[in-house]
TrEMBL record:
GO terms for molecular function: methyltransferase activity. This is FAM86 N-terminal domain-containing protein. The keyword Transferase applies. Residues 11-99 form the FAM86 N-terminal domain. One of its GO terms (cellular component) is protein-containing complex. It comes from Ovis aries (Sheep). Gene3D superfamilies: Vaccinia Virus protein VP39. Keywords: Methyltransferase, S-adenosyl-L-methionine, Transferase. Belongs to the class I-like SAM-binding methyltransferase superfamily. EEF2KMT family. Pfam families: FAM86, Methyltransf_16. InterPro entries: FAM86_N, Methyltransf_16, SAM-dependent_MTases_sf. It comes from the Eukaryota.
Length: 340
């Protein structure tokens, strides 16, 4: 195989690998490129390589996606094979047989590969809206903010970050694994989200502070040499939390992703940002970054209007290339940097 052909095959494998690990919609896979490669090949080695990078990937074996998803993916892979090759692939049929006999759990896993070679694996609900909350799955703006953070690690290195509405935890876990923060506080208000969030933190190899009260009372010395950040999960209700409670976390950076769902959440978010603006650390207010998908322009307009009323200046962060993570669909997203 010529060097150019090897490079094309490697790109194709990478495309399948990252999409499958993240359980992206099958229509987003590079099926056409695969068909072209299969027509030019007399064997099925490429399909077997794809099998090893997807269903048989060590991450998927340990933390599998939903059974339905794996079944649909393998069925499509077999169809592509049969459309070109007359000889059946025992390996593909064996993999499908294993999936057909498996039971569908209530939770599945998604994994996201990081530039360092590490990965973030999340346990998520198989339902988009489960137990009355959208926080049990990862949304596009969380990927977008995580990608920006990985490209701008200095914003977080040796600093304490507080994330509002952490959801499944993708953004924070990516930051903890790549940006060397001193400490990271995940937060949400829904008990089911917090339960799953704690599980995801542990799943990715981090230890949790025994209690948020102990964290607030004993934030610990500044140790830049520490390999792992201190990590805590806090239950925060934006409407009832007080400024002193927020100040106890001593945040240097505030983060939020995909939390602008409607007028009520916008007003609550601006309210908690106003409280955070009083949290001075070394006479300096924390930096704040809010990422969101522009679903409803009126909601985004309300957010910036309310920021103005609260006296919180903002500017849009320059857009970055969305190359690291596979997104569910192409949608417009933005990150605002707020001056608290």
């Amino acid at each position: 195989m010529a060097p150019e052909e090897r490079a094309d095959a490697a790109r194709l494998l990478w495309g399948f690998e990252r999409r499958f690990l993240a359980a992206r919609a099958l229509r987003s896979f590079p099926w056409q490129s695969l068909e072209e490669k299969l027509r030019d090949s007399s064997g099925s080695e490429l399909l077997l390589d794809i099998l090893q990078k997807t269903v048989k990937h060590p991450l998927c074996v340990k933390h599998p996606p939903s059974v339905k998803y794996s079944r649909s993916f393998l069925s499509e892979l077999i169809r592509k094979h049969e459309a070109v090759h007359t000889e059946p692939s025992d390996e593909l049929y064996q993999a499908l047989a294993e999936v057909l006999t498996a039971e569908e759990p209530t939770h599945c896993h998604r994994s996201y590969l990081l530039p360092s070679g590490d990965s973030v694996t999340l346990c998520e609900s198989t339902a988009i809206v489960s137990h009355g909350t959208t926080g049990l799955v990862t949304w596009n703006a969380a990927l977008y903010l995580a990608e920006w953070a990985v490209e701008n690690p200095a914003v977080f290195t040796h600093r304490t970050a507080l994330e509002l509405g952490s959801g499944a935890g993708l953004t924070g876990l990516a930051i903890c694994k790549t940006c060397r923060p001193r400490a990271y506080v995940f937060s949400d208000c829904h008990s089911r989200v917090l339960e799953q969030l704690r599980g995801n933190v542990l799943l990715n190899g981090f230890s949790l502070e025994p209690s948020i009260d102990a964290w607030a009372q004993h934030p610990g010395p500044h140790t830049p040499e520490a390999e792992r950040p201190r990590v805590a999960v806090a239950q925060l209700d934006w409407d009832t939390v007080t400024a002193p409670q927020l100040a106890a976390f001593q945040p240097d950076v505030i983060l939020a992703a995909d939390v602008l769902y409607g007028p009520e959440t916008v007003l609550s978010l601006v309210g908690v940002l106003r409280k955070l603006s009083t949290c001075r650390k070394d006479q300096r207010a924390p930096d704040a970054y809010v990422a969101f998908t522009i679903r409803n322009p009126e909601t985004c307009q309300l957010f910036t209007t309310e920021l103005g009323r609260a006296g919180i200046p903002w500017e849009e962060v320059p857009r970055h290339n969305q190359k690291l993570f596979p997104y569910e669909e192409h949608s417009e997203m933005a990150i605002l940097k707020l001056t608290l």
